[in-house]
Write a structure and sequence with these properties.
about 70% helix
């Protein structure tokens, strides 16, 4: 069988698995729909969290970023993994101790304000839709190449699958589906990496094989007139490396679809341990991604650079990806050869990257001429990564609307059955909107995801950290802080990336090139700083929180006091706990 036939087999089997799990784990209560009944063990939750976390950006796009950016691409490795350390130490046990369903739940009760809850809902929806756009884009890319359909149709097919198991199983179905998706994606990621490492170096361990290939890649980039691959600060300035890393790190700790995973565990101890397991499962992929980036860039430069354009266009894998529109080779200077600078982009404006960075992982098995079934497995893994994160994000959007808005503000007396119905309807509608953003994304997969991290860093991280560790933080400070961070970051990203975001309005030039040297992916750190500053000043200028709220903060900060508790009652006497 060929690649396409094997892809149908692999994707069909994995989709059947996901749908079967959704049918077996379908829920009949809001507790099951939003937090899986708070009955997920630490190991299972760690695996589900890893799948939820390792989105299309991690599976499809991260190695591409590292291949294009070299040393500077390490910002994604440092930021995305470092954020889990913050989660484990500063957030996970305390939020699980709080024992509710969503981040807006925490914000609304901790800051004793319906307005604060509404602002948190808006932030959660905004962040989640930004993030899910990248996931649906990744789904479209995989379907486009391996099933021979358009990217738009691929997005629609992904919408149908994720809508089925997210609407039916809610968080419970999503959790167990994500466990299966983790196994699929990690095997799909490791198998070709091991095979390519062995082919290039006779060493089956990719991480060890880097030592043999990296010097060769450094040399070939210099010989071709490019910047040394391992040289620092060639793609990004030092200030951008710093600010983007911080934004990704604190953004991780503020992402609502990651935080909600810690509400699903059985106990506070399980919440803490699940971060350990998640880090371990994530590290397996994250230590492999740089090896794929290095292998792919070396082979592509070695086989394509300075070769006749017609000869390169006749290579089977190049032909396959050219048909998707994700490879566009041109004779840049009229000499009939493929320029090295063209393959991976150049700082010269007139030379655009011929290879879309989102195809590196998906194309690498074809480049290495691996077996068709292995190439198809990578496609199934990319879909698993994108769909696992998309489903988690859709549950966040659904819970923000159905639980926090409808259940708390519009109809607090609604029976559980009606709340569950509203949750399922909003999940379905969210899938439709997510599909639209997947068809018209404001950038490539990992870039769109990075914007979501900046928004999370600027809005949620300060309000959660100060809500746990500073009793004096007030509702006025939280509201103004969240609004300041979110609006500043969203507007600044919009102005910098105006040609991509507002292309449908005919915008062709950015309104501002950057924010004092900081690019769109790093401005979330500035937004976070502004949020902290505004919260601190306004909280000191306004009356302190009620005593019962301050007592609640004390109880949240000492998790062992209420091991296994489901929720706090802010009016309960601490002495009776």
């Amino acid at each position: 069988m060929g690649i396409q036939e094997w892809t149908y087999v692999m994707v069909g089997l994995t989709f059947a698995l996901y749908i079967g799990i959704a049918i077996l784990t379908r829920v009949k209560s809001t507790a099951g729909f939003y937090v899986a009944g708070q009955g997920v063990g630490a190991l299972a939750n760690g695996m589900a969290t890893a799948a939820d976390w390792m989105s299309a950006a991690s599976f499809i796009s991260m190695a591409g970023l590292i291949a294009f950016m070299g040393y500077d691409g390490a910002i994604y490795l440092m930021g995305w993994t470092g954020g889990y350390v913050l989660l484990a130490l500063l957030l996970a046990p305390f939020l699980r101790k709080f024992g509710k369903y969503t981040v807006p739940d925490f914000v609304g009760d901790r800051y004793y304000s319906r307005t604060a809850r509404v602002v948190a809902v808006i932030a959660a929806i905004f962040i989640s839709f930004t993030y899910v756009a990248g996931q649906m884009r990744g789904v479209g890319i995989v379907f486009s190449r391996f099933l021979g359909v358009s990217i738009e149709l691929g997005v629609v097919l992904g919408m149908i699958i994720v809508a089925f198991y997210a609407v039916m199983g809610g968080m419970k179905g999503v959790t167990y589906t994500q466990m299966a998706q983790y196994l699929v994606l990690i095997f799909a990621y490791l198998a070709p990496a091991i095979a390519i490492a062995f082919l290039l170096t006779n060493n089956p361990l990719p991480q060890a094989a880097i030592g043999d290939i990296l010097p060769k890649l450094n040399q070939i980039t210099v010989d071709l007139g490019l910047t040394n691959y391992a040289a620092p600060f060639t793609e990004l300035s030092f200030i951008n490396v710093l600010f983007i890393t911080v934004a990704l790190m604190v953004g991780t700790a503020g992402l609502p679809h990651v935080i909600v995973r810690f509400y699903t565990t059985k106990t506070v101890k399980a919440a803490r341990w699940s971060t350990f397991w998640a880090l371990l499962f994530i590290a397996i992929l994250y230590t492999t991604a740089p090896t794929i980036a290095i292998f792919a860039k070396y082979v592509i430069l070695d086989t394509l650079a300075n070769r006749p354009v017609a000869e390169v266009q006749a290579i089977p894998w190049v032909q396959n990806w050219t048909q998707t529109g994700l490879i566009t080779l041109k004779d840049v200077n009229g000499d009939g050869l493929v320029q090295a600078a063209e393959l991976f982009g150049s700082k010269t404006p007139e030379i655009k990257a011929a290879i879309d960075r989102d195809i590196i992982v998906l194309a690498t098995p074809e480049i290495a001429r691996l077996a068709p079934w292995l190439i198809a497995l990578v496609a199934a893994g990319g879909l698993a990564a994108a769909l696992s994160t998309a489903s988690g994000l859709l549950i966040v959007i659904s819970s923000a609307i159905a639980h926090d808005i409808y259940g708390h503000l519009i109809n607090p007396t609604a029976p559980d059955e009606k709340r569950l119905l509203v949750g399922r309807i909003t999940t379905f509608l969210a899938v439709m909107v997510a599909g639209f953003f997947g068809i018209y994304p404001p950038g490539f997969v990992a870039e769109v995801v990075a914007f979501a991290f900046g928004l999370a860093a600027a809005s949620f991280f300060p309000v959660i950290i100060l809500g746990i560790f500073w009793k004096r933080a007030t509702k006025q400070g939280a509201i103004l802080g969240m609004l300041t961070g979110l609006v500043f970051t969203a507007v600044t990203i919009g102005m910098i990336r105006a040609p991509q975001i507002f292309a449908f309005l005919g915008v062709t030039q950015p309104i501002i090139p950057d924010f004092f040297g900081i690019n769109a992916q790093g401005v979330g750190t500035v937004g976070m700083m502004l949020n902290f500053l505004v919260m601190w000043i306004v909280s000191l200028m306004t009356p302190p929180p009620p005593q019962e709220v301050q007592d609640m903060v004390e109880r949240i900060r000492y998790p062992r006091l209420l091991e296994g508790a489901q929720a706090f009652n802010p009016t309960q006497d601490p002495a009776t706990v």
